[in-house]
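Case study 2.
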Amino acid sequence: MSNISQLQDHGDKEYEAAATPFDVEEPDEWIALLEKSGNIHGNVLDAGCGPGRTSCYLADRGYSVLGVDISVNAIERAKRKAAAKGNKPQFLQANMCELSGDDHHFDTVVDIGCFHSLSENDRGPYAAALHRTCRAGVVVYLRAFSTNNSNRGNHPSGKDLPALSDEQIRTVFSSNGWVVKDLVQREIELFISNEEKPKTYCWFVQMQYVPSPMQDQPSSAHEGFTKIYAETNPPWDIGKPQPPFVAVADQVVSPVLDAGCGTGGTSLFFAARGLRVTGIDFVEEAIRRARAKADERGLAVDFLIKDAMTLGDWDERFSSVIDSGLFHIYAGDERQRYVRGLAHVLKPGGRLFLFSFNDDPSWPGGGVSRNELYDAFAGDWNVESLELVGGEVNPAFAAEFPETFANMKMWFAIIRRKE
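Prediction:
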């Protein structure tokens, strides 16, 4: 049985009060970390937006945001909050399970506590509604209460607060066409108010809708990365290679492709060692900065504005490929297409040197498991080595999120294309 009308009644009563749980000014820490890590892209749907906390934060960061909530009073409060802040998210009072629209408008969905409130009968329609309103390649970031909480407070109906198992989450979304990329449980401090911050177990979920077959289109991440380079120094831009590339530098031979080169720190390192290097990135500003660095240092590197999704159409061939943090942004058909492109441009016997997020649950946008990496490079590839190594982010970002990056571990793989 649907509980939508019950949720609407509860929300309207709750948001009549002057002080409401979860109505705080600070952005949600997970959402802030996702945004600053480059995981929020394009047009954003804030599902179950409540009084607009996340919608206002992301609108203030320059995103086009639509916040949707079943509660009339929640939407009215969100509009007042946005007006007071001077930013311009859009708000819509509607049932998320019935959300319609065939324009496939959204690139990112954030759900902080909407899905777990739905009855079993409403969860499938919710997943289907996201299909109707989102673009191919959309990424969903969802947080839900876990069944592992021993004391979960009170539900609007008078029963325990709704909570989900990992199996329930996977079943609903997998059966509705979504790829569950990452699903981990973490204990967090639930910010209800300044005085009330109980410890609570939550699921942190990352999902993507990737149609098959993959169309010949740019990566869905392009807009988000362009925005990051326009506004700040990205967390991965440390001005030098990540440590494992330095350790294996003698194994890297010309000609070299640096796929997703960013502002060129790794490309320039190998160019300074006398190698012929081509660096590609789909962000124009990143390539502009890389070319400026090359000019300053008097180094010859061919920096090109090029999407790694198009490697399969390229006539160039390389003996070594560097991937410092690109592989892990792809999933599903995009990942397969990228690996096919690598096989196309890497000479038989050549090596791919790959640095990637692992599947540690602390990563903000998810990572890649050992099995996923081996599966991606089956067939024409031989994984010669795979190990967990240390990594770095720029100092400003590390200072802002010290716990997340204090003991940063990444996959580093050397993968040979079979002859």
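The longest helix spans residues 72-85.
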